[in-house]
Design goal:
The complex is a heterodimer of chains A (about 210) and B (about 290).
Chain A (H helix, E strand, L loop, with lengths): L9 H18 L5 E2 L19 H8 L7 E6 L2 E2 L5 H10 L2 E2 L7 E4 L24 E5 L2 E3 L5 E4 L7 E6 L3 H8 L10 E5 L4 E5 L4 E4 L1
Chain B lengths: L15 H16 L5 E2 L13 H10 L5 E6 L6 H14 L2 E2 L8 E5 L12 E5 L13 H9 L4 H14 L9 E4 L3 E4 L17 E6 L4 E5 L5 E3 L27 E6 L6 E6 L2 H14 L1
Parallel strand pairs in B: 2-3, 2-4, 4-5, 5-8
Antiparallel strand pairs in B: 1-9, 6-7, 6-10, 8-9, 11-12
The chains are: A alpha/beta (about 210), B alpha/beta (about 290).
Organism (chain A): Chloroflexus islandicus
GO molecular function (chain A): lyase activity
Pfam families (chain A): PhnH
């Protein structure tokens, strides 16, 4: 049988493989997925001079195009439209940088961004899918840790996950994120090694 | 064909923007189990109503490493399954199989395979009618409001009227279920036999309605309850003593077909899941 299609480019391949990890992680909260290595490394630094988590940015960018909008934050501050990293992402995806309440996607470059959850769109009862999808960079997701206890669809009984380098207030913000089913925001936690944890709005989170 | 015409299409046919849109909608569908998420539903070289919703989902999630199985009414060899499989493999080059256990993605019309599916597999269902409220509320805007308010009283009246008219819950397929104790969902024309497989499953179920431009999902380990009454419970099609004429299985969904012979012919029941039936026959022959 003749194959009549081009093989995927490196970025398309990353997008496809990353999506399967994201889908699997969101369908099975508590399962730690491994994202493929990001297809680029030349990201502009954050305001404090540190590089952003390239895997988390690439995973977020894999879903961005000209029909959606995004916002991103370092610490507890939203980064402005003219920040080099904002322009870098917008140039490569055509996604519109907007204010937080209107954003389809939010990239939070460190756990302090959890303080901003309340500003993001949680959808409406008519359109609960018009809510923000958040990519939150965390220092480390531990494979057999016990930081959060999870319950809900996608979990047979309960699941526990370990998070390193996330302050108690930030853990509390994750546990009490906007999630009044069917409304809420959906989270992906991604660490420096490309490990990924999905926390959809349906997951009940308890800090152990 | 020249070298250039061999590479006429993007990997998996759909352009990357179309895939990205469907991927975004799939994530929301998983996050809101049972909720109908609108999507753009692109034109395809297959007419709407012939599995384009499921096809678009498969094309959006498939990677070069996947192993694909496509079934139509449980059968790998029927026209719809063969055509969809050929389109997907010619535009991706992925491996295909008829063995449920060997597949990573299974696209299906009107059946869930008999063999239990695992956590590392995804079942993509082709959906003809996405909204179960269509039966009681043809106006889409009003039905959307009813979903948003979990206002399913009319549906319960419909179920009650089914009992009053027919003496039982006479819904052969598209049996309505409540997902995650919140959203009323159409199970697509799978037989009632398959409905319990949606409840607390190991597998992720993705539903695509191309004509109606809707995507929805049932994540694994999600509560899926068929609508039923205490005195008229939900029942599958199972008849005690039923058997497949080919493999002898007494615990599968059967289809009936007419077999001609010298005595004028007779009705025969065989497994609807043809690959599962063939696997059992092969096993029996190997041990015999």
């Amino acid at each position: 049988m003749t194959i009549v299609a081009t093989p995927p480019t490196p970025i398309e391949r990353f997008n496809g493989l990353a999506f399967r990890v994201l889908l699997d992680c969101l369908a099975r909260p508590g399962k730690v997925g491994h994202l493929p290595p990001p297809p680029f490394a030349d990201l502009p630094p954050l305001p404090d001079g540190t590089p952003p988590n390239a895997t988390a940015v690439a995973a977020g960018m894999s879903l961005l195009d000209q029909t959606v909008s995004f916002v991103h934050a370092a610490g507890e501050e939203w980064l402005p439209v003219d920040h080099p990293l904002t322009r870098w992402i917008a140039l490569r995806t055509n996604a519109r940088p907007v204010e937080a309440a209107a954003a389809d996607f939010a990239l939070l470059h460190d756990p302090a961004g959890t303080a901003l959850f309340g500003e993001l769109a949680a959808g409406s009862l008519l359109y609960p899918e018009r809510s923000c999808t958040v990519f939150l960079s965390v220092p480390a997701i531990a494979l057999n840790g016990e930081t959060l206890r999870l319950r809900g669809p996608g979990i047979a009984t309960t699941a526990t996950v370990g998070l390193r380098g996330v302050a108690p207030t930030e853990l509390a913000a994750i546990a009490s994120r906007p999630s009044q089913f069917p409304l809420g925001i959906d989270l992906f936690l991604i660490d420096q090694q490309g490990r990924c944890l999905g926390l959809p709005r349906t997951t009940q989170i308890e800090v152990i | 064909m020249s070298e250039t015409s061999d590479q006429l299409y993007n990997f998996a046919l759909l352009d990357e923007d179309a895939k990205r849109e469907i991927r975004r909608k799939l994530l929301k569908a998983v996050a809101i189990p049972g909720h109908l998420v609108p999507f753009a539903s692109r034109d395809l070289p297959i007419a709407r109503g012939w599995g384009t919703g499921g096809l678009q989902i498969t094309l959006s999630i498939i990677t070069p490493d996947d192993t694909l199985k496509v079934i139509d009414q449980g059968d790998d060899e029927s026209v719809n399954a063969v055509n969809l499989r050929r389109l997907i493999t010619r535009t991706t080059g992925v491996a295909t199989t008829t063995d449920t256990a060997a597949a990573t993605i299974i696209q299906t019309r009107h059946r869930i395979p008999e063999e239990p599916m695992r956590a590392d597999q995804i079942l993509v269902l082709q959906v003809p009618m996405a909204d179960p409220l269509r039966w009681v509320e043809p106006n889409l805007e009003r039905a959307t409001i009813m979903h948003s308010e979990a206002d399913y009283g009319k549906m319960w009246v419909y179920m009650y009227e089914s009992v009053v008219r027919a003496g039982d819950l006479r819904i052969a397929s598209q049996y309505p279920v409540i997902v995650n104790r919140r959203y009323l969902m159409d199970t697509t024309p799978i037989p009632r036999w398959d409905v319990p497989k949606l409840h607390m499953a190991d597998t992720l179920y993705l539903f695509g309605a191309g004509r109606e431009k809707r995507i929805y999902a049932v994540p694994p380990y999600t509560v899926v309850e068929p609508l039923q009454f205490e005195d008229y419970p939900f029942r599958t099609e199972y008849r005690p003593g039923q058997r497949c004429a080919r493999c002898g299985a007494d615990n599968t969904f059967l289809t009936e077909h007419f077999v001609s012979d010298s005595n004028g012919g007779r009705w025969e029941t065989t497994c609807s899941d043809a690959a599962y039936c063939a696997k059992r026959v092969a096993q029996m022959e190997a041990t015999a």
